[in-house]
Every structure is written in structure tokens, then in C-alpha cells.
Amino acid sequence: MSAVVALLENIDFKSMGKNDLRDQLKTIRDNEGMTFVDIGRQCGYSSSTISQFVHHGKTSTELESAVISFLEARYEQPEAQVEYTDEIGIYPTTEFKGVLGFCEDMRLRQKMGVVIGHPGTGKTTAIREFCERTEGAVYIEAFTSMRMQDLLSIMAEASGTELKRGSNYAKVQQLIGAMRNKELMFVIDEAEYLKKWDVDKFEILRKIWDNTSVPILLCGTHDLEEILTRGNGKDNLAQLYRRKYMMKLEGIKEKEVREILKRYNITREAANHLVAAAIDVRHGGLGNFVELLELCLEAAEGSEISIEIVKDAKKYKLMF
């Protein structure tokens, strides 16, 4: 029984037996270009588990329930829409709203916080939005060649002071004096780049917070978590580590992606491929999804986004 027939007849997947479910997954793999890796990711199981189910019938109640949920979401009849959009904006996902809330909590409680997530999970979008909405919140983007003096100068400018010549110690003391009683918060993106040969910048930030209670939030990949946990092998960050609060992003969920895609004129098969890209947090996640969707909208020029357009967008993106 093909997936197309199942859709047209509006079949209740819950009433299907094991073999019918296996046939559905085979059809999706053979006719729609999804791999068992993609299917397993959306079902919450490994590709080998899906393969064992499809080829050998090895199953469990939990696995069959997950497959049924996957099929129901995949072939859900779309709601009637008056008009589609071709605009891409900020998507207020659960994690996006969670980061905003976490940042605000750190600000109100005057704490040091850390946001960790793979590239493309929406960290930068969320913290930039928080800084734009919040008076006194200063966004700082770290980079590989950033010196201690660079970091201190940026913080000093936000504090309304100009650092005098002297040692880093003298500059830090001047900065601490300037920051006291100021309604400030520093949000440092790509904070893993603060480590070059040592972890001194992290220690300076910790001392500034200790002496001013100005909230500081570090945002970065899992490399940042490794640095905060282990230091650089010679120096550790135990004093900072025990002071910080941490939020980890897992990436957008399938249901949220499908809700986003309801705004666009897109075929079901094309949507399924974009869903797979969005929830693949180790290969760009939400960031990759947004870039692909943008390319698809440009190529469609107001028409329906087809699977061919999605595939062409993937090929084009790999060129750059």
C-alpha cells in the first residue's frame, strides 16, 4: 500500500498492523527520498532500529507508536489557508522564548548565565532579540583575535567611561568602579573564542561580576561548555563554574517546524525534507532550515515550493 493511497483514503494509521507500517516506511524511503536516518531522527530512534523493523519486523509497542505518530504528522491534512506568505522572520519557537526568559531571569537576579547549543539552534537570534528589547543589555560578539584590552574597552564604553593607560589589573579596577550602580547586562556571543592560549578573560569576567553584580551571559557551542568544565588543561575555571547557571538548547522540534511551514505554499513532500533539515541539529538545524527556505522562496517566485526546488536549494547551498 503506497503512502499516496494512504493519504487519499484518509487511513487511520492506528488501525494498521505491523506489516502495513513497515510498508509505509519502505514507500517513504523508496519514493520520497528519505533515509532511515531521517525517519529514525523524526521517530526518536536510531536508523538501525528503523532498518531492523522494516527489514526484519523487530519491533516493540513503543516503536510502533512512534512510527504511527510520525506517519500521522507526515500525512496530516493541511488546514485551509486564505493566503501564504513569502516572508521569513523570527520564529518564536519554544527554545527562542526559553532563551528570552532565561536572559531576563539572569538580569533580574544579577547572575552569570551560560547558553549552550549547536550552531544553527537559534542562540544568536534569541540573544540579539533580547538585547534589542532590553534597555542596558549590551551585545558583544567575541572573535578569535580578541585581546583582553579589546574586551575591557567594549565594556568600558558601554559603562560610559574611557580606560586610562596602564596594566590590565588597573583597567579592570577602573572598569569595576565605573560599572557599580549601573543598570547594565553584558551578553557575550561565541564566547568560546575568548579562550586563546589561556582562560584569563573568563576569570576577569568572573571578577568583574563578583565585584559589581552586573549580570553577564556567555553564549556559545559545546566547546564553551568544555572550556568552562575543564579550563585549558593547566588552569581551571572552578570559581566561575560554580557561580554560573546554564541553559542547553536541543534544537527545534518537528511539530514546531510543521507549524511554521503551514504559512508557506509548499508540497507535503518538500515540507518533509525541510523538516528533516530543521531538526538535524548537528548539521545546521534551524539556521540551515531558514537558509534553505529562503532559497526555496526565491526560486518559487510566489508559486508552490516543490520537492525539486528543495533539492536544488540543497545542491546550491553546498556550493557555498
List the helices and strands and how they pair.
Layout: H1 3-8, H2 18-32, H3 36-43, H4 47-56, H5 61-74, H6 94-109, E1 112-116, H7 123-133, E2 137-141, H8 148-158, H9 168-179, E3 185-189, H10 200-212, E4 216-220, H11 222-230, H12 238-241, E5 244-248, H13 254-261, H14 268-278, H15 285-300, H16 307-318
Parallel strand pairs: 1-4, 1-5, 2-3, 3-4
Helix pairs in contact: 3-4, 6-7, 8-9, 9-10, 13-14, 14-15, 14-16, 15-16
Can you offer a commentary on this structure?
The protein has 320 residues and is α/β, with parallel strands linked by helices. Helices cover 55% and strands 8% of the residues. It contains 16 helices and five strands. The chain has helices at residues 3-8, 18-32, 36-43, 47-56, 61-74, 94-109, 123-133, 148-158, 168-179, 200-212, 222-230, 238-241, 254-261, 268-278, 285-300, 307-318; strands at 112-116, 137-141, 185-189, 216-220, 244-248. Strands 2-3-4-1-5 form a five-stranded parallel sheet, with helices on both faces. Strand 3 (185-189), helix 10 and strand 4 (216-220) form a beta-alpha-beta unit. Helix 6 (94-109) packs across helix 7, helix 14 (268-278) packs antiparallel against helix 15 (285-300) and helix 15 (285-300) packs across helix 16 (307-318). The longest helix is centred in the N-terminal third of the chain and has 16 residues, at 94-109. The radius of gyration is 24 Å and the shape is elongated. The chain starts with a helix and ends with a helix. The relative contact order is 0.12.
